[in-house]
Amino acid sequence: MTKEYAEQLFLQEKPALALLAIWSLQKTYASIITKEINSTFAHTTKILIKMEEHGLVNFSLEGRVKYVELTEHGYRVVDALKSLIIALEGEDPEDFINGHNSEESLQDGNNGQTAIAEKVDKLHSTISSIYEDNTNNDSETIKRKIGPFSREIQLLLNDINGLDVLDDSILNRFTEIQDIFDNVMNS
């Protein structure tokens, strides 16, 4: 792959959205990314193959499910991409990075609670909608759709445990997430 091709790939909407979707979902699979970026499965697969060729993602096979997740290089590219997006919107990238992604912000009183509350709300909404939309499906289908969120739940639990004080409503919503996840995975 030439350098020009890499620039062409990541300065297009769908590949950039796919990279951000993988970052957001952590360990996921192609059909979920396809939905997130509003693309076709074939196009998403082509994008993911190119990303793997550039060392941005790794694929792993667990049973019959082929998962995709970012490599360390992929995380660095996502950080650069987020900075580019923020710069184009006229915001200071350092404010975004320090305000939303650093460990310090998660442990900084109200800022930490706000960041965790946003993550909990997003995860709660995602898992609840998957669970509710698939109640008529068999348990294995629901497990395949909710299973990839285990890492995100664990990361969020680590963030919550890092705070000295946490609002009860945030903790209750997180507990609901864990209950749904445990219920699905243990069924």
Structural commentary:
It is a single chain. The chain has eleven helices and three strands, in the order ααβααββααααααα. Helix 5 packs across helix 6. The chain starts with a helix and ends with a helix. About 10% of the residues have low confidence. A hairpin with a 2-residue loop joins strand 2 and strand 3. With 187 residues, the protein is mainly alpha-helical. It is globular and about 40 Å long.
* Portion of residues within helices: over 70%
* Shape designation: globular
β-strand amount: 5-15%
By DSSP (H or I, 4+ residues per run), the number of helices equals 11
Class from secondary-structure proportions:
mainly alpha
- Order of adjacent strands in the largest pleated sheet: 1-3-2
Instruction: Let me know the number of strands.
Output: 3
Count of all domains? 2
**How is the biggest beta sheet arranged?**
3 strands, antiparallel
Radius of gyration: 18 Å
Topology as H/E string?
HHEHHEEHHHHHHH
Low-confidence stretches: 92-109
Assembly state (oligomeric): single chain
Average pLDDT taken over every residue: 77
Terminal-residue CA separation: 45 Å
